[in-house]
């Protein structure tokens, strides 16, 4: 069984300004390139990047990396539509790391941890990192979640599936504020970048 990475960068980033948040800098790399390189380094395969409104710029940024671009033609319908576009291109037996580009400050060790969890916990189907009690991203889905995810309405929130899963949802405490650092706006990006740079220096 394989574990794939599904990186979501399809939205218009309308609250972020003139350019895609996927192209915001995290250190010396853009957010989307960092997500791709961390996923590859952690051994996820295939690594697929779902694109939509900013396909050209994101594709240029990922040149030279062993990743596949998946175009979500219905990206404007909501995040779930974009996730479904990516899921349909993955092997049906693959567990999936789902990592939205609006969480680019996640530590590499957290990604490695999530990738190892399915082999250690045979009953969990949805693994969610938490920081100080708050749930974040990326999350890891068992391949058994594929059918339910694809059955959702394109505009329905993915979290609507959580109540049905009960104890099969595993919440994993991590010492990583990046899992809850959501960069929808330039102000959120600057705050998260400052925190990340401070942690890198320690």
Summarize the structure in words:
This protein is α/β, with parallel strands linked by helices. The protein has a single domain, classed as Spore Coat Polysaccharide Biosynthesis Protein SpsA, Chain A, CATH 3.90.550.10. The protein is built from 7 helices and 10 strands. The chain has helices at 31-41, 55-61, 79-87, 108-120, 146-151, 162-165, 186-201; strands spanning 3-9, 25-26, 29-30, 47-51, 68-71, 95-100, 126-131, 134-135, 139-141, 169-173. Helix 2 links the parallel strand 4 (47-51) and strand 5 (68-71). The model has no long low-confidence stretch (mean pLDDT 93).
Instruction: Show unreliable segments.
Output: none
CATH hierarchy class name:
Alpha Beta
Give the termini separation. Answer: 38 Å
Query: What form results from the Cα inertia axes?
Result: globular
CATH homology superfamily name: Spore Coat Polysaccharide Biosynthesis Protein SpsA, Chain A
Number of helices: 7
Q: Give the number of DSSP strands.
A: 10
Describe the secondary-structure layout.
Layout: E1 3-9, E2 25-26, E3 29-30, H1 31-41, E4 47-51, H2 55-61, E5 68-71, H3 79-87, E6 95-100, H4 108-120, E7 126-131, E8 134-135, E9 139-141, H5 146-151, H6 162-165, E10 169-173, H7 186-201
């Amino acid at each position: 069984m394989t574990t794939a990475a599904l990186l979501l960068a399809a939205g218009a980033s309308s609250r972020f300004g003139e350019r895609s948040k996927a192209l915001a800098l995290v250190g010396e790399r853009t957010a989307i390139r960092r997500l791709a390189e961390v996923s590859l380094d952690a051994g996820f395969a295939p690594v697929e990047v779902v694109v939509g409104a900013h396909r050209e710029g994101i594709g240029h940024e990922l040149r030279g990396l062993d990743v596949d671009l998946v175009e979500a033609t219905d990206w404007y319908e909501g995040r779930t539509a974009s996730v479904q576009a990516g899921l349909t291109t993955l092997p049906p037996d693959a567990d999936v790391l789902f990592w939205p580009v609006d969480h680019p400050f996640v530590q590499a060790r957290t990604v490695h941890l999530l990738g190892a969890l399915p082999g250690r916990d045979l009953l969990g189907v949805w693994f969610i990192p938490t920081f100080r009690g708050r749930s974040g991203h990326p999350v890891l889905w068992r391949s058994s979640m594929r059918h339910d995810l694809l059955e959702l309405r394109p505009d329905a929130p993915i979290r609507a599936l959580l109540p049905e899963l009960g104890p099969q949802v595993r919440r994993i405490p991590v010492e990583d504020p990046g899992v809850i650092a959501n960069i929808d706006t330039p102000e959120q990006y600057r705050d998260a970048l400052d925190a990340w740079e401070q942690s890198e220096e320690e």
